[in-house]
Amino acid sequence: MLSARLSKILEKIPSCDILADIGTDHGYIPLEAIKANKCKHAIASDVSKGSLEKAINQVNLSKLNSVIDTRLGSGLKILNEDEADVLVIAGMGGILIKEILKDDYDKKFKVKNPTMIFQPVQFPESLRKYLIENNFEIIDEDLVEDDKIIYNIIISKKGLGEKTDSWNDMDFEFGKINIEKKHPLLLKLLDRKINEQKKIIHKLKDAEGENISSRLEEVETLLYKFKELRKCCFQK
In the UniProt record, does the keyword Iron-sulfur occur (predicted)? Predict the structure, then answer.
């Protein structure tokens, strides 16, 4: 049975010919996508030999070797040019996902414009900023809670994108679409962020050092922005 996080990613995969799961770990996404007839063929890749061996074992057990390729390698480097219709890059940090796109996206996709499903475990704001600044369009977003952690899911395609000046730091932090939707998990995420900032402020007020005042001002500003967004979205 898939976790809530992986189930939500699977839900977002559109019908396609070839799915590539970059950083596949156990290979659950390609396996379930094939079983659900989301794709005709899947590529399961991982930079870790140990992780890929887990995926190979799962593919063998499911007897889906004829429709799932397993490949050892880094990022998009394992793909042939214009090979995949849908990319899933999940379970890694937003900065690493950004670097994967930066290194190889334009080399690998000359004609096809794949739908990309990202699930950054850290720094989603860094990934969103990169996408907007590099002519990728964020076409949908979602939040999912799994084992008490709230994860971002970002759906993107290469396109005209938006001008960066139409985004603010809260849009990058939480997702413009999540804010517009007033996503129910956004309230929970904001409350967590507000409590985190309060704890940091409490510690800083008892600390000493030459940079404490500037750091305190920075955290208090962030706390104010979180509270204002909460008020805007969830308080009439």
Answer: no
| pTM as predicted | 0.94
Q: Is 116 helix (H, G, I), strand (E, B) or coil?
A: strand
Residue entry with tokens 């050092």: 209
What is the phi/psi pair of residue 92, to 5°? Answer: -135, 170
In a structure prediction context, what are the per-residue pLDDT tens digits for the chain, which is 236 residues long? Answer: 799 999 999 999 999 999 999 999 999 999 999 999 999 999 999 999 999 999 999 999 999 999 999 999 999 999 999 999 999 999 999 999 999 999 999 999 999 999 999 999 999 999 999 999 999 999 999 999 999 999 999 999 998 766 777 899 999 999 999 999 999 999 999 999 999 999 999 999 888 877 888 999 999 999 999 999 999 999 85
Query: Would you list the domain boundaries of the chain?
Result: 4-166, 185-234
Spatial contact of 141 and 175, defined as CB atoms under 8 Å apart? yes
Query: Helices 184-205 and 212-234: crossing angle, nearest 10°?
Result: 160
Count the alpha carbons within 13 Å of 61 in the hemisphere toward its beta carbon.
10
